[in-house]
Amino acid sequence: xxxxxxxxxxxxxxxxxxxxxxxxxxxxxxxxxxxxxxxxxxxxxxxxxxxxxxxxxxxxxxxxxxxxxxxxxxxxxxxxxxxxxxxxxxxxxxxxxxxxxxxxxxxxxxxxxxxxxxxxxxxxxxxxxxxxxxxxxxxxxxxxxxxxxxxxxxxxxxxxxxxxxxxxxxxxxxxxxxxxxxxxxxxxxxxxxxxxxxxxxxxxxxxxxxxxxxxxxxxxxxxxxxxxxxxxxxxxxxxxxxxxxxxxxxxxxxxxxxxxxxxxxxxxxxxxxxxxxxxxxxxxxxxxxxxxxxxxxxxxxxxxxxxxxxxxxxxxxxxxxxxxxxxxxxxxxxxxxxxxxxxxxxxxxxxxxxxxxxxxxxxxxxxxxxxxxxxxxxxxxxxxxxxxxxxxxxxxxxxxxxxxxxxxxxxxxxxxxx
Length: 418
Known about the structure:
Layout: H1 3-21, E1 44-45, H2 58-72, H3 109-120, H4 132-135, H5 182-191, H6 200-208, H7 211-221, H8 228-239, H9 248-253, H10 262-272, E2 291-293, H11 308-312, E3 320-322, H12 343-352, E4 356-357, H13 383-394, H14 414-417
Antiparallel strand pairs: 1-4, 2-3
């Protein structure tokens, strides 16, 4: 994205943060002070603010952490009741279950290997230079670490690339949920002219020209003649094997009560109760898989993103985006669909209740005007609380394991060249 456009986006969201939070953020957080544009101030108002609650003494924190450690080290049935709103179909957080592969695309080792190769093969793209791994890099938490991703011909795309780790547990893919399966998601990215811009005929021709690919397609699907549908199915099969479960939180849930620090234990309790995170970030994947409006759609302004509303056409879905997993959240920043926020800024925004859009002239009766999620409320958390939440969220990070891309048929790898 050209620097002037990115600066403008920073200006819009910086102004919103200044109004909602009530203080000026450092330039490194979102934008430089010269990028703060007060023109957006009158278009966003904060929720009713709550002053931060009193901080605890070190002794009180230690005593509370010890008490909570004893409780949370036990069975989840004995955990304190979470603070959830009426009607929320929440699920308890915990260890990830086994992955269930769909009946129409069952797992097999040859199919997983084929999908792994295709995931890293740039020849699937129209440019021959872009692979699935370009935006979902295992060295970057299976994301890309960018505000928004680059697409075909280095085009700046509109949204941040979410991690594919644990995508096997998602019922909707993409921020707007337009794909109902990993197979649909893979095909959509391949076909998108702004993303991989794959030419189906050229992709099939390339795959047919490689004996190793033909052999794997035969082993995976019973037919050595490849197709785009089969390629997408193989990629989806591989992606379902990219699953976490090795975090310090998982170790704690397995019975290692010392795996979490005192701060993380306090943060766990905050996450489930006073911070209200569990209203949306629940279940083993720390996501309800649903769609919510956080007040960040920029409706009626530059860089507007209607989110789910553009997919369904339902005015009630305007500005809603899929709840992302919080597993590996500290390894997959920047955050949100627009990729504009680091974790500390995101927590500050949530603590404030998030900005609330105000109808401007001409929008008084607009049925599509976004309505912020009722689950977002001012929390009144103090600096200790925010630090404890950060400690808990950090405990959800997976160990850093280097993954060597596979050797690709017909391409000499750097390892082979040595």
